[in-house]
């Protein structure tokens, strides 16, 4: 059955249906949605939206009009109620939405609730509870080790192959795609400098990552086993873990990154449900070290339920693609990260977000940070917009991605983009 | 004017008035407050309470009965609306509360709204937004450096005297005093072990800290200067940063503590407003290194507005005092920590919580962790309940504290206590 108004093969066809939160830039009669009378800024009513091609279906309004029992989950200003509803509800809602956008009988009801993307403002789609960031690409970890610890015997720290290394980040500065990023100021000190100096970061970088969004919570004291990943994680998004390398280098020993990361983390406006990514599931790289049972995904059971995802990411600076990091190369899977994060009894909350860590493939064209792409600033990139080691004010960084979908289709992930503005 | 039913000199007299959130264990007619009919567990209606002696004033009900304009801030199940109301409102509400518990004309109204502490359940008093933990005691940092990096030239890392080192923790596992702490499991590996082993932590420790609670938010991109501390921070509490030293030691290089800390952080049920601690303000220790301007509290202006607090903490294990850490010895102040945390443009949210870091004085009787008290398990403590290096199942740890108040009084801080239960 043909979907409504989406060309064959569109990566945002009815096989995808990612979720976001939107508001109309102006009300249907053409007046501004903002009560201030200023420029359209999406200050109108927020609702859960579902993307179909270049349109957004007002899923909340559709649920109400169609008398759906899911109106209580969809006619809301955030995805959190849907996230909290659990896996069975996620499947049921997805099935209902698929019918709404494909069954001709619904067309008359649904068509007026489809808004062009250009007419809406997209908002941070969920309230972020805790934000954790991992470090799960072996290529990335080895590159960083070689750059920062050139004299070390092994570029990986001794724990790296035994556990997915992670740390908590600042959930209050997670922002939606399109939000400007103010260049952070802070302390930096080159080894030869007598004392630290203060000023805007001069080594502002990106990290191309995938973010996982927790729906179903878990109680304190009860670890979530590897096999329960799909019961807790609703979906994924693209994530840019902006990083001020100079601030980070001076501050991070012994307690880890702090101000070098906490100024901003950008996520895509669309959360792709894991149910849309069944055809993208792949086995992770072979494990070179035996894993403790709570992380072991090499058993037959686990191997039949692979934890990797084949996501093809693209990193563009000022519209020019500089890298295509392959997510399938990640050593640690999102399921292992969830099992590790909770094995000490830490609870999960609806809205918890965790980043995969920078995605870097084996080749130069697959690296997920400028730190690696320029080898810590040694080899500048030649872009149409000029030479770059790290980011300059005005630069726009955009991550996009797609995954294999059913029957040879592609599943598009929402882009995450941000522009650097000068610091104070 | 005599306060209602509080002995002269009580550390929770009307000069203190800390805030919490409580519910009655049973309704006034004697039936259980819990709709399940089970044992009284504080499942009844939550309201903001103010402690006076060994009683809790139902501040929400008092505000309603007295027709106070602050009912909208106090007749609430969490402190967040009061926190968000800002400094002027904090002072006004405190002035009103002081009148309600001291002016005889209010006695008839207020007395029935005073509940014995034994009749109420105290809850986590605010919704924690981001949680950050610092490392601000020079004694503690030097002790830890000597224990973990005995071969280092200096026990402090090179950045320590230039910035208050901190990291983000897990806000979802911040729990109120009295909550049991399940012993965490995880990976540990002694240097001589061939591979990590998994199991319950065998080096479970405490960290005696003070927590600061942010009320007034700040926008992204705008640092909060040193002098604006009192405009943003509402008050403080005691905080126990439970730490699994064996998990932490194996995981923390290079990205800092994660599972070794994220299983639980306990805070006292009472938040002491900074306005109650005017007489406890002291200058921090002399600065041995010049500070960058955004952290410099040695100017004449800053010196007249000292950033330290003279809080006398006491750490008891199974009722036996093992240490009395003096908060006045902290090198970095809470004002400096706030200025540092936001200097990169990171925003603040109502409910942000930040810990001072372990409080350790210069002498053995003033150390804020078992790691230091037993020198990493080398010198066991002889307690009435037996020898201890680290915590055993069933152990109860309680932090209490007081500060100098007006006219020779003491201002009591709410205790933070927790019992270790066996892991799964």
From TrEMBL, chains A, B:
Residues 132-419 form the Fumarylacetoacetase-like C-terminal domain. Its EC number is 3.7.1.2. One of its GO terms (molecular function) is fumarylacetoacetase activity. Residues 15-125 form the Fumarylacetoacetase N-terminal domain. It comes from the Bacteria. Pathway: Amino-acid degradation; L-phenylalanine degradation; acetoacetate and fumarate from L-phenylalanine: step 6/6. InterPro entries: Fumarylacetoacetase (IPR005959), Fumarylacetoacetase-like_C (IPR011234), Fumarylacetoacetase_C_sf (IPR036663), Fumarylacetoacetase_N (IPR015377), Fumarylacetoacetase_N_sf (IPR036462). Keywords: Calcium, Hydrolase, Magnesium, Metal-binding, Phenylalanine catabolism, Tyrosine catabolism. Its cofactor is Ca(2+); Mg(2+). It is an enzyme of class 3 (hydrolase). Pfam families: FAA_hydrolase, FAA_hydrolase_N. Residues 17-46 are annotated as: Disordered. The keyword Calcium applies. NCBIfam families: fum_ac_acetase. This is fumarylacetoacetase. The gene is fahA.
């Amino acid at each position: 059955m043909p979907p409504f108004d989406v060309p064959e093969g569109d990566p945002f066809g009815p096989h995808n249906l990612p979720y976001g939160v939107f508001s109309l830039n102006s009300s249907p009669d053409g007046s501004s949605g903002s009560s201030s009378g200023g420029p359209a800024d999406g200050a109108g009513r927020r609702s859960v939206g579902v993307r179909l091609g270049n349109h957004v279906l007002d899923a909340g309004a559709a649920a109400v009009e169609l008398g759906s029992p899911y109106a209580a989950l969809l006619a809301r200003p955030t995805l959190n109620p849907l996230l909290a509803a659990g896996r069975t509800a996620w499947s049921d809602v997805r099935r209902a939405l698929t019918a709404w956008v494909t069954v001709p009988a619904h067309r008359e009801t649904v068509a007026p609730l489809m808004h062009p993307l250009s007419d809406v403002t997209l908002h941070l789609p969920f309230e972020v509870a805790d934000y954790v960031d991992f470090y799960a690409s072996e290529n990335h970890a080895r590159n960083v080790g070689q750059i920062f610890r050139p004299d070390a015997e092994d570029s990986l720290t001794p724990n790296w192959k035994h556990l997915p290394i992670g740390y908590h980040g600042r959930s209050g500065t997670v922002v939606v795609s399109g939000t400007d990023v103010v260049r952070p100021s802070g302390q930096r000190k080159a080894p030869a400098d007598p004392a630290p100096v203060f000023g805007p970061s001069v080594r502002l970088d990106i990290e191309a990552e995938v973010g996982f969004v927790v729906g179903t919570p878990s109680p304190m004291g009860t670890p979530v086993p590897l096999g329960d990943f799909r019961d807790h994680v609703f979906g994924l998004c693209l994530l840019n873990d902006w990083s001020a390398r100079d601030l980070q280098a001076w501050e991070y020993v012994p307690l880890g990154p702090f101000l070098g990361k906490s100024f901003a983390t950008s996520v895509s406006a669309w959360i792709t449900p894991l149910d849309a990514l069944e055809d993208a599931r792949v086995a992770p790289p072979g494990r070179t070290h035996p894993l403790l049972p709570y992380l072991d995904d090499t058993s037959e059971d686990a191997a039949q339920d692979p934890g990797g995802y084949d996501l093809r990411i693209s990193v563009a600076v000022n519209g020019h693609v500089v890298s295509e990091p392959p997510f399938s190369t990640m050593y640690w899977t999102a399921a292992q990260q969830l099992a590790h994060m909770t094995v000490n009894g830490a609870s999960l909350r609806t809205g918890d977000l965790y980043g995969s860590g920078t995605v870097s493939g084996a080749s130069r064209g697959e690296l997920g940070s400028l730190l690696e792409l320029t080898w810590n600033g040694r080899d500048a990139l030649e872009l149409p917009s000029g030479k770059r080691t790290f980011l300059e004010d005005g630069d726009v960084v955009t991550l996009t991605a797609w995954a294999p979908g059913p029957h040879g289709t592609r599943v598009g992930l929402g882009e995450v983009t941000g522009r650097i503005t000068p610091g104070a």
